[in-house]
Structures are given as structure tokens and as C-alpha cells.
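Workshop exercise sheet. Pairs work together: one partner reads the sequence aloud, the other fills in the structure field after running the prediction. Swap roles for the next sheet.
Pair: D.N. / O.F.
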Amino acid sequence: MGVAQEILPIEDLQEIYESRKEDFKILHENSINRRVIMMHLGGIVVECFVKSIIQYKLNATKRKKDKNGLWYDEIGYNNILCIERDLRRQVKKEDYNDNGLKIFEKPKEGHDFPLLIQSHLGFDRDTIQEDLDMVYNPLDRDKDCFIDLRYLDEDSDEITDELYEKWKNSYNRVCLWLERQQDNIA
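Structure field:
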């Protein structure tokens, strides 16, 4: 399989972030009292926002088809095209790795926005780490995160009114914090 089939244009993560943020806002404004889905979607909003900032910072325009955490800027992508076209050989895994921008190591890390912030953005998280942790893993379960909320029943006793309010406050603080951080990159 050639490079053109292996590397795809990357999604416009800023646009996806805006769309998920709008979904969240609509649910919230219409008093849809579905705490599980709000917390799940809120985590997705933050994940998309963080990835959009990384995408902008790295000028990433392409990604590997298998979603293995490799993104590419135009230089890396063109290097791989040259290997295929000019060297007339099949592009190897090492070629993809050597010319790619490794965003995460393991698939689950793709959702780990606190780790993505630490690894790729270098923002000072001292004042916001507790809120990041709350949005990422609201139930404070080992090896779980907001993505795993999709398996939680809406009537679960685990998401109390107090927990939801704490999560909502953390979510709002994280979004504001990320907006300020994004302004510093631009």
C-alpha cells in the first residue's frame, strides 16, 4: 500500500472542538439533566481542544491511517513521499516513525489530555492540575477516564449532585485556562 493510502489529511480539530463545545452548550442550555453524557462529552470537548492546540503548534496536517499516534507536518509527509517516489522502495515502519510527530505511545493515551498537555504543550499546570484530573477522571478510578463513562448507567449512584457540581466547575475552569494558553501560542 502506498503512502497516499497510508497517510490521510488530519481532521480540523479546532472545528471538531467547536462542534463538540456547541453540542455541550445546547445540552446544558436546554437543561438536559443527563450528567453521565455531560461529563463524557465535556471530556471529549477538552480532549479535542487540547489536540487542536497541539495540531496548531506542530503545524500537523496529516495523520497515519492506523491512528497509531503519528501526525505529520508537510516536511515529514514530503520526506515519506520522496522515499517512495525517489528511492523507489516500499516505505517502512521506521520511515513513518522517523518522519512523523509522535503524539502518544498507546491508544488510550490519545484521550489522556493531561498527559498530552504535559508532553506537547509544556503549559504550567500547577494551578489547574486538580481540575484537569477531575475532568479527565471524574470517578477517580484507577485506569479509567471520561471515555469510560459511556458504560455507566445514568441512574448510577456514583455521580452525586456534589460530584457533578464539582466536575462542572472544574470543566469551566479548564476550558477558560486552555483558552488563555491558546492565546499565548498564537
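Discussion prompt: The chain has a mean pLDDT of 89. What would you look at next?
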